[in-house]
Every structure is written in C-alpha cells, then in structure tokens.
Amino acid sequence: MPEFYIQHLTVYSYQNSVRDSANQIMLYPISDEYQQVIKQDVKISGDPLVDIYRDYYGNEVGVFTYNEPHTELNIKSKLKVETISRPLPVDDMFATLQWDKLEQLKNQIPYIDYLKQEQFSGLEELRQIVRPERKTDYTPYQASLHFCKCIYDNFEYIKGVTTVETTLDEIWQLRAGVCQDFAHILLVMLRLINIPARYVSGYICPNKNGMRGEGATHAWAEAYIPEYGWLGLDPTNNCIANETHVRLAVGRNFSDCSPVKGVYKGGGDHILSVSVLVGNEDNLQADFGDIIESVNQTVNNRNSYQRHIEIVHQQQQQQQQ
C-alpha cells in the first residue's frame, strides 16, 4: 500500500489591492476503500474560517472569504495519503449484454450527467471517427482502453499551448495540449458510445516507470464498466489510473473539479501560480519560489494557443512555396 506526501501551494498575486475574496477549494482527496487520507493540513492567508460540505458529486468542498485588503492570497495543502491497488475488470460477460446494461443506465441518476455531451463544432467529425468502433465486438472495457490509446497516439503533449479556458473546439483543432485537454476529449469519445464518463482531478505520484505529469496536479477520466464500476483511464500516459493516481474530485468536466476558484472585489490583472511537490517521505523541502507550474492569467498571456496556430500556419505556407 503506497503512501504519498503531497504539498500543494496556490498563490494569487494581484496587480492592485483587492478585498472580499470569496473562494472555493477542492483540495480534500476522496476517501474510499482504495484511497485513505491519513492526515491533512490546509493553511490560508488571513486564517479565515473554512466551511466544508459535500457537493452533488460527493466531493468534499471548502468555502471561505478573505475580507481584508490584500495583494496576495496563499492556499497551502499538506497531506499524507495511502492508496490501494484496485483489481482490473474481469471482462468475461458477453459484449452485447454489457452494452444492453449501459443502455438501461442512460436515464438513471447519476449516469445522466455523465452522458451529457458538450456541443462543439468538431463533434460531428469526432462522431464519425467513434461510431464505427461501436459496431465492433469490443466490450465497454476494451473500447475504453482503445480510445484512451487513440488519444495518446494522436494528440501531442505540449505544455503551455492551452489554458483552463481552452475550448473543445480549440483542443480538437490543435490536436495537442496537456492532461486536462486529453481527459476532456476522452470524455466526449466515451459518451458518444453511451459509456458514462466523468472527469477526475488529482495528482500523479512518482513511480519507477516515470510518467507525464508526474509529481504535479493531473487530470484523467473514469469510464463506468458494467458489473465493475468506475475505471480510471489516463490518456496522457495511456494507462489505467490506479494506485499512483491520487483522486481529489470527480465531475462532468474541469469546472466541476477545479482545485481552487473564486471571485474578489478590486481591479487589475492577477497571476495564478501553482506549485506541487510529491514524495514518499514526510520531509519534502518546499522551495515555493521555484514554481513548478505557473498559469499567468493576464490578458497578454491568454493567447498561447493562437500563437501556436499562427506558427503552424506560417510553416504550412513556407512548405507550399
């Protein structure tokens, strides 16, 4: 049973002084038979009172307000979590019977939410790619693994070309991005063949194989498999998410699972910086001046996707000349 120590620091830096910062945090890992939180300490600037509740999807959510004027907001979570490897599906039931069982679930709660399809201009194109696969002899388990590999093989992992606000259209056109982009495309593909699928936020922890996104915040998808339950699929690494993936929250998409979000009174731009340290010992020396992940939310840095498209377009023009 692996044990992981995780430190997660979120820093909001404001151009001007702000106040009445109301925030929601989803930094409390899921506790169930395959994952247990041994201890956790959450510290927030100004030491505000944090009210905790469970949302519609079963996630533990904290809300707080920092009323005093401030130019920076720090939210730090330090935790120890234990994970247990989950057995894989046996997958010995006839494929047709499994698809019939999924058909019976599509109008039942909570599966309705996990089958709702977000509309985007590339949806029909993706539907034409996915539809023939449903006509094969794949079981839902086999189909899920197949689409996970399809994304891994056909999408390029590039940091910085997308943001949390990047749309499905942009991801589909670019065929590149990071873990949350790959997870969103996999959700679309699974839902198109009537497999309930949900978004998962969390951490991917170090292991001997080494994986993309290791030691950082991560995102993947879960597919509902008849007679088994929710199966974690990580298209960024083309693997099943198991004991090295620590789950924070689940939902329909990223917006349901955002680790930190909020609003405030005040003007000017702000910068969001996120730093995550993951290890196997309770002696992580955090140098949070060296930010591992940094998301600049100022207007000037919003268009990294557009810059990448322009570069690709220029390269295509040069090849045609």
From TrEMBL:
It holds the Pfam family Transglut_core. InterPro entries: Bac_transglu_N, Papain-like_cys_pep_sf, Transglutaminase-like. Gene3D superfamilies: 3.10.620.30. Residues 171-237 form the Transglutaminase-like domain. This is Transglutaminase family protein.
